[in-house]
Amino acid sequence: MKNIKRIFWLLLGCISMGIGAVGVVLPILPTFPFLLLALFGFAKSSAKMENWFRSTGLYRKHLEPLMEKKTMTRRAKITVMLSMTLFMGIGFWFMDSVPVGRVILALVWLFHMIYFTKGIRTAAAGEV
């Protein structure tokens, strides 16, 4: 059973990393959340995979400033918040018959907006 869980987390990490890598090239896909999910999946699968992922350029460029310094560039913040708004907006649109779901989704969106504007320091483009 333990091996099945490790394989699941490893697959989740690989798939998330792939989607995050595609998101670097395609602006419609958010890079940050998928790379964060990849880090989580690799960390749950094995320390070796987590260390490998932390050594990749994707991690160093997109996640390391946030994970180590709690900073993001203004452009990165805007990209994350816009993609989050788009995807949560789609969910909000489809929940027209579930008002409680809409309220919860709106509260989650509001929390994310406050966190990214107030909780994460904005760094200059060359600083990160």
Automatic annotation (TrEMBL):
Key word Membrane present in the record? yes
Domain of life here?
A: Bacteria
* Signal sequence range: none
| Natural source organism | Blautia hansenii
* Residue stretches spanning the membrane: 7-28, 100-117
InterPro entries in the record: DUF454
The alphabetized UniProt keywords are:
Membrane, Transmembrane, Transmembrane helix
State if Transmembrane helix is listed as a keyword: yes
Pfam families per UniProt: DUF454
What is the protein name for this chain?
DUF454 domain-containing protein
